[in-house]
Fold each of these.
Amino acid sequence: MINSNKPLSLSKIQICAYSPDDKIANGYPLYEIFDDRHDFPLELTQSGIAVMLTFFNNRSAATRGPRGIRRAVSVSIIDDTESSVVASTTLRVNIPGNTDVKLYRADLPLAYANIDARHTYRVIVKDENSGAMLGATIFRMFDLCSLGKDPDKWYIPTAGGIVPEWSCDMYRAINVHGIESMKVKFELQPAFKSCPVIFPELEIRLYTPDGKTKINFISPDCVDFDMDEYSVEMPVLVGPDNSGIYYAELLCMEYPIAGMVFCTDCQTEEGYYFGDSLACMEEYSPASALDRFRSMMKTEETEGDKKDVDETEEDDDKDPFERALEEFISNELKDVSNELKALGLDEPQDDSTEETLTEENTDETNDNETSDESAPAEPEDIIRSSPRLCLDRLVGLKAVKEKLDVYEKIVLFNKLREENGLGTSPLPLHAMFLGSPGTGKTTVAKMMGFMLRKAGVLSKGHVVVKERSSLIGRYYGDEETNTRKALEEAQGGILLIDEAYQLYQPDDPRDPGKLVIESLMTALADESNRDWMLILAGYPEEMKLMFGMNPGLRSRIPDSNIYMFDDFSESELMEIAERYLQGKQYTLSCEAREALSRRLGDDYSRRDKSFGNARHVVNMIQTEILPAMAVRVISGNINDPQALSEIQACDIPKPTIIAGQPRRRIGYCA
């Protein structure tokens, strides 16, 4: 049944930035130029934004006969960072009763002088008759002057391959018989002239054996602890009817970065492409792709024969960098942490962590003994990503960011004085992180470790996470041994003790946690060893009680090193959800966005001190929203890209209301 209150809906928004001399600025409507990209290069001649809107007439299928639509629709560009309107225009949408879909193009002025490349912008489309928002999408502008004039130099490709549905490893060729999907994967390192706050999206263009071209725009995911290795993946449906030779090309701002040829109807071959085998083809054609694949296979067969004759000689002649890269990919990549994948930075796993979050913002992990003892010092020409800018990408954490900004400046100030032969005062190193679960304490600790390592304060900068259960032994007296081992693991980096207040039990004088605290105090008193940092983390009130009752800790951790991780606000929780979904290539319908906002607002109002914050958001998406969407789509036998990516309001779980549960708002005092 048609909803008479919403006769018009918006199914797609596409954006294109242009200069006065561009083809799109001098032609209309040029539907074929628009695609699904959200990131654009910012040039000095930038003058406008063209928006292509695909409207749907909800009255065209009315039971009493089709009806037409005439609506006034506003199209606005909003600066999300400053919450201000940058430009706006109005369209007259007129769709006849016998027409379902109609495209309209809107052009809005947006000149170089009015754009801040550090900001995120949003296109919002509203029905002026009803005031309802029909749709919205974000876009970003990247300044070529600051990042480097050639976008094809912004990323360095290091590996490429295909990942079948039954594996997490990369392959150069597979036999798709019996499988339904695979992923095309590229790994790369950032190489910007100046690291942006948000990394620009990448495009994977896939040329299939049946003559089709598939395009996906993907934000790079961080896949390693030091935030200098990223990857992009494109899911692909496969079958016997489209098996054969594929060519996958990786692009940034339409500049080719890498390309690889692979086969899906031959013998499965584990491995990945790197070096010259990732070079872009000058011009794609099925014949040239086949020739390149045969050439690579012939080269590998020749090298294989040579290896059988003299394997030792081949190992000696092989490029040391390629050998090291191969060893790293095959051995280490299987075990890298996924914490930095949700907000583009980290991602919580199961019921205990996200990165994003998630590009971005989650915290504690189930593996409380995670460490990186062997974190080597990367060359400066490889390390391009600034931990401070990565921190700026995280949602919220305003108070933490401000304190760390001051702390970073003090560290750099002392470093400059030391380089100029001037004396420096010892920097208070140890800290306390106060906050609820999922507010980013572990994530910030990792960024702080990397920052201190680059500044020369710490030799490694890795983070070792421990808690009471991993420091208290089976027998009385094991605490000193376990604490000493933890300190040895953290040497050169950071020892983060999560829920540290559990070590302090004032009502039990024989509690073994007392021995852990005493061992830590002994290590803190050793002024000759300053190549490690202690961070005590936990709930604010409990930590403050422990801190107040222990003069030794108070003398080692000044107030300037106490960081307050506030709960995320309702709008910040919504931003975390949207960033996470965008990173996983999901979209929210207008109704779903409103339903999710209501649900998060209700959860926020009912939260207690154990509220999971970013972790709560990601767990809801992973365990409730996406399963509900999957059941709806599969039960309806729907198989089109929009249905597989757009979340509907019915997929959003309703609030869980417990009888007699009070609605309350709580907070924490600093």
Amino acid sequence: MRVTDISNEKITDIMIKITFPDNTVKEYENGVTPLAIAESISPRLAQDVLAASVNDKEWDLTRPITEDATIKLFKWDDAEGKHAFWHSSAHLLAEALQELYPGVKFGIGPAIENGFYYDIDPGQHSITAADIPNIEKKMLELAQQKNPIVRSDISKEDALKMFGERNETYKCELISELEDGTISTYTQGNFTDLCRGPHIPNTAPIKAVKITSLAGAYWRGDEKRNQLLRVYGITFPKKKMLDEYLVMLEEAKKRDHRKLGKEMELFAFSANVGQGLPLWLPKGAALRDRLEQFLRKIQKQYGYQQVITPHIGNKLLYVTSGHYAKYGKDSFQPIRTPEEGEEYLLKPMNCPHHCEIFKAFPRSYRELPLRLAEFGTVYRYEQSGELHGLTRVRGFTQDDAHIFCAPDQIKDEFLKVMDIILYIFKALKFDNYEAQISLRDPNNKEKYIGSDENWHKAEQAIIEACAEKGINARTELGEAAFYGPKLDFMVKDAIGRRWQLGTIQVDYNLPERFQLEYTGADNQKHRPVMIHRAPFGSMERFVAVLLEHTAGKFPLWLAPEQAVVLPISEKFNDYAWQVAKTLNDQDIRTIVDDRNEKIGRKIRDNELKRIPFLLIVGEKEQENNEVSVRKQGEGDKGSMKISNFAALLAEEVQQSIEPQ
């Protein structure tokens, strides 16, 4: 293989130019592979690299490059590297299942955020949790064969024939929907799968395997189709990584918001009410209200005006916005009224309603930016198999706002929204986060609405705002909303899991679709730009993430109960209630545990409830109008006057809400 620096002016017909992320350019022979490029840089890089992108398209390391291109190489620490590793592991799982259970049929087997899954139709076989060790053993056995994973481009006719002969009905259904000339397969060992890729070069890097669960899943998410077996798994290039992951999983079980929410009496679900429709209990409703008031106060400082819109809207509203065309089939069905031809929908988005509020009056440039905020509840029909506690529900409340502004105000408004989101992260101790700029897929523009010019302007505004703020955001093509690009904030919680919290979107398209106008300084009509933003995302999901991040030990200002009074015997119950009343009168959330139990038991039980302060009262405390203070996680703090404790707690509340 020949490689030369581009500064060398000698160019031949068989050389191509490869541009690296740092904008350096080198020449390689036509047909060079990303793996060969990695080897030309260093043997260690070639050993560690797992995947590549060529001209921003996913690319196998062993696939030739036949034209000038930009290239990125991905290792394990990169999301793209993990994705290729886990995608290949899904194929390895399928190969193992094929050997262990002849005749099984395969659906789809993608990589997911943590690992992968494969949907299979086991046919006559019964696969249970007892079979997991054998599946893991077979996967490792196959991985150790170090079989190359080979891509083949194949015609639609040949693909249908190949998978038809194997009676792979699910694969044939997928193939029938593909265009000829776009179909590829990947083979390792005795297993061949329909797949777009990319994959790691061979199975050798897969050193540790864990099948994490078995579940049911309807084919293509359709409850009317066959129910398949979904086998979840995860793999790593080192056993130590798997061991660390399993420790994290155990910790995650302890922090599961569904478990904590029940223990702390925050929320509940009822089959009679309906799947995915949470019921907020008094303590949870109060917690949520404190979060809302926290954000309302910030929004007021930034000039937001609060609005309220209905839970339903005329179907034509969402036809105009484009939401019905994009999501109508997957939404709750229209509500038909006695009026002929009149249909309403449960509100899937707040933005169309806010557009109509903007249109309610003639607008002047002097009113811009107009910032409309709403804690608006929306409804989306999620498949029952996809529902998960508060993180995936059918009815949820967004901390939504829409900023209507002039084009020259976009960047400044975008920066202010970023300030709000970062302030919230600091206040709630989400210290580990990263940002992602989600752009339109330039090769699949039909997925989006709006002109190329407006998309370019919107994308540039986000890129410039991130640069000005000093945020090193990663860029993802094809992840934009259908109406505009966006900036998403990904937070890592206390045990290292990534959550998408906070989003900002620039939108030239809804103002166009709703024909929004304002009168400019030139007395002419102009089209505003919309910025969509939701710092929490949704109240449900945010509370779930916060619960798991803190393991239920909320910041003091958010805690459902800030103190509990523990009388050491029944003789001091009256004094305990007197202390509680004094503190509650000062807005310190206090309860009394006057059960006929030993004080040691009361202390243990209330520490498990994650109440920040335990106030123990007996004869001495009653005589001196004091409480003996015990702080969660820190132990005894000594006795103090009730007024002194109230002052101490008020100071700590203020410290807990102010970003450090």
Amino acid sequence: MKKIFSIAFILLMSSGINAQIDRSQQPKSGDAPEIKLPEAKIWETKNGLTVIVVENHKLPTVNFSMKFDYDPILEGKKTGETSVFGAMMGAGTTTRNKEDLNESIEILGARLNTSASSVGVSTLKKNYKEAFEIFADVILNPSFPQEEFDKEIKQTLTGLEANEKDNKAVSKRVQDAILYGSNHPYGEVTTPETVKNIKLEDTKNIYATYFKPNIAYLVVNGDISKKEVKKLVKTYFKKWESGEVPTHKYNEPKNPTKTEINFVNMDAATQSIISIVNLENLESSSPDYFAARAGNTILGGSATARLFMNLREDKAYTYGAYSSLGSGKLTSKFYAGASVRNEVTDSAVVQFIYEINKIRNEEVTVEELNKQKNSLFGSFAMSLESPSTIARFYLNEQILGLPEGYYANYLKEVNKVQPSDVNKALNKYVLPENSRIIIVGKAVDVIPGLKKLGYKINYFDVYGRPTVAPSMAKPIPVGVTVATIIDDYADAIGGTKSLNKIKTLDQDFSMQMGPYAIDGNIKKMAPHSQKMEMKMQGQVIMKNVFDGKKGYIMAQGQRMPFDDKQTKSALGSNTIMPWLYFGDKKYNATLESIIPVEDSEAYKMKVTIGDEVSFFYFDVNSKLLIQQENVKEVNGQKMSEITNLKNYKEHEGVKFPMTLQVKAGPQVMEMNVKTVIINKGVKASDFK
């Protein structure tokens, strides 16, 4: 009875307290936490090297970083040379070849990283002297060996080739190319042609020109004292000579006078990557910097921001939608974007513009702003636990010319921001009427919808160069039907008579999933039995079996029987040559159009079985099936799985595709068929 009374008393007290709250008053954010940054020891040596030391003796580790603050280089016909140079800085010294350098670092349990503008080493306290000696050796004595240069050029070219058909890589590349232009260092694009123009001497020239102590910052943090650092600097960098470093001026890029769509066609794209961008000149020292940052966080800075809640949670267009607002010495950009399904590309653009206009035209609520402030208070306080972060703060104050104590007062400045400040700042830096809506996607699927939005559409290639509009869908010629296409395909791979003789099929294949090699086998028996087994290092990791009546999937040691939907799908499509039967009513096959597929034109055939939809693409000239697209629903969202069929080879009078490239979302896998055995060795017992 006493416990019941206590609970009732608490409830009564709670209701009394709630009754006294004035709901007309907006809640306030808490006071900004007091920030006390560890003191940094900063000094400049006689040769102009600036040294920043932030001591932290909680862990026995030390980090050394040398940052070179030079203007970006306009590389022109040798775009990519600074990236190659950054890699070459870790390719060996005059006292250690690359193998010796890597071994020396490994023995110490240290880590070395190099880039075009920095060299860094992380090590244990007990090894800091040896690690610093290697650190200084890399900075002062790089050897630039020809052999390593040739390897780096080859790797760069291989990477470019691999990324040509990667939507995300293409989107990242063309975004800055279109926004800044080729006459600005931020807009230059590395291509195979520019990489082939780079010579070893170019990397040596970059080092000789820009790696000077008078534009360098040595940043040290961790379990080390100023006295210890001074001794190291005097030992290794005393004789390092300063020198004049060139500065650069660039053409100033401009926003368009009116918002436009810039489109890059990717015929195999299953999703469109949308980037809405505009140039802006936000600086960290600007009075409206904190208001602009707060506004961007509310718009698209997290998984609870407006863009995410609209495009993912409400509309289910994407797995995530975000925005960012850059700042720095040179022109920067506002960005908002997401990867969305092809069929909702135009609708997603509309929602992006809607949210951007809304946050500019209507004040954010006090609740939203306070939530953002409190979140920032917590994340900023947590970031201070990292000595590297604190050291970076002091470096930023030096390089960006920020006032002393800028980061110590950071949260106080954030706390001053009011809703009206956010509105004013975003109207200055976020420009939906002067933006570029850059879309990388499948033209035949998305251009018709985009044209209805009323924006001018410009077309670019995968390197951000202007090009003509891509070839779009063409009507099916008179006399071409599902039946004629199937007949032509059958003739192209061996003829209907030979195909109908195939009663069993046994195929071995191999594939690579990241670092893992997988071996597999597929067995089929007419009319519907099928088994696929995949192994890794001799162990079965997945098995999919259907005996013509029932089936199961085995993965991670668990056996899961087919449900009704899976059984229906297996009965509908698991024949040896399913496309031979597309003329049957149950397949509901229809022709849609002729569309470009990679470098060919193909008939697009839609096949519907129940609520499952697939598309088959038959090359107009070769008559071969070159692509298959299955539309699936994953976690409530539709996703396309595309399979490219290549490298047809004849086996016992019938041609089979020996290479199958499968793309599902961001994952790309290539299956290589090693053997094809027809009408031998497959038994009914294989499907149990």
Amino acid sequence: MQELSPKWLFLENAAMMVPADQMANPFQHTSLTTEELLMREAIQNSVDERKKDAKGAVKFVVRRKHYFGVDKRTIVEKFDLKSIYQRTKLFPKKYNWLQTEQTCLVHLDNPDVPLPLLILSDHNTNGLGGNWKKSEGNESKFHNLVLSLYNSEKQETSSDFLGSYGVGKMVYALASNIRTIAYYSHFEPSTASNSVNSRFMSTAFFPKHTMNGKDYSGHAFFGTDTGETNYPSKPLENNAADEFIENIGLEKRTKNDFGLTAILLDCDLSPEVCQDACEKFWWPRRFDQHSTDYVELEFFDGERKLQSKDPRNNPEIKPFVDCYSNIKHNTDPAQYERKKIKAKGVNVGTLCLKALSETEDKCYETKNSVALIRNGLVIAFNHDYKYQDETEKENEISTVGVFEASDHAVMDFTLSEPEAHDKWDFNNLRLARHLGKDAKDRVRITHERIKYLFRDFYHSQNNKKRKVNSSGLNFLDDLLGGFFKKRKTGSPAPPKSNPRAFSIQKIGWRSQEENSASDCLDFSVSLVEEVDIAEVNCIVTVTLKVLEDAEGKPGDLIPYKLYDSEGRTLIAESNKFEIELKKSEIQEYHVEAKVNPNWRTRWSISINKNSE
């Protein structure tokens, strides 16, 4: 049966339907640029859809093409852009969603004004199979991406758990000056796809408007007419889809070339800015070419291929790459510190910090920040861990770091992200709704511990530098000391200290809400290797003292509860408790105390051999 010619069909505004122009609202408050949003979202979709039996890595290709003359006329006719231009005359100006005079629509008949298309293609992925007009879980890939409105099916049911809000398609729309995207996909046929293996369809997101007395939501679909109310358009299929792609000057996919090609009409983003965005946020997936997480990237401007970039050659990214390498290889070189972070009994991830050298410490935007990473994507370069009221002093050593979420907690962090996936917010409502209070606490505690470790490392490195600089003045003592006779004193020389038998490691932080606060402490104790005994009975003393209360006066000791390392089993509620230490054994504990948010407090720990 001959396929009908595709045309634009608009959805009438129905009750509870979100107007098309409002679907971009969640992206209004992000600091990410359009190209950063686009590259993050598009590649995230691609890597999540890697074919399990693929022989190679996911390949992602970005190509910009400018259409002139006859080629431009072909695009205008094939996509029926003149009908869109006529429709724009009905759009209310107050929305400012589509400024017609700034788009290609006013130059459709001028062959000398280029019409730019940005083409994003992935390979070795699943493509958009499944039932095209019915959501059947994560298998309805075409429906979920192209036809659904605020569909959260992927968030609720996907075993790969992307955490999508269902508005990722708006990232594509935002990159198009006429808010129009075409989808061409080749996939393995199945019963759900009715044995179809290729599809093509275009969608657009316009302001809501009125025409001939009818209200329209702004959602438009370019396909063949079905005569149905809910799904008025259906995609071109099989040969018809391939022929449409060839008619607009693109190559159809071969038999086993599965994946998605997204075509952004009137998109003037350059391949260079797209490449820079990938380098900034996807570098964790760019090193191990034998890993299934590796992503192969290619960028073209017309037929010109851009030279590949190595993030290790970018001075702003390289310090983070170095930290990430230490996490992956469990190494701790000088000028670095690597710590595993636990929260609510779960290993939530690993933090690696680095002190920048003088040659590295330039005026980079990313210095004194921590790159937060999950699933190979840099969610953010977070600057909030450094004291916000602390001005950078001349010759101060800057710090950078990487925190990589563990597999045990990646779901917590994913659900804490907003639509732009650009931060981890423990107050995100869907986090507690889907995973409960413990997940919310894990994200909150993770931020608190990163902050503590970052500040501690930052100050320790600068204190070391100050000591080294001050020691350079000691030569004056050596030079002038002989001219002065030392005064004799009756004080004996201080006794030599015995080597410490016990090792104590601690991390303290404050968990604060509106009107309450808790001081928390994680600590571990062990016998040092130099001690000749195999085991010993000890008394551990832990105190939390009020240094300044709300009136600025010193206060008493604060009662607390001491738990095991997972914070579940209560061990003691007194300041002292007895333990038995054994060689090569580390014992870990967690302490919590309720405090006044206005108090300044300090934890102290001591350990002594039990005299009894």
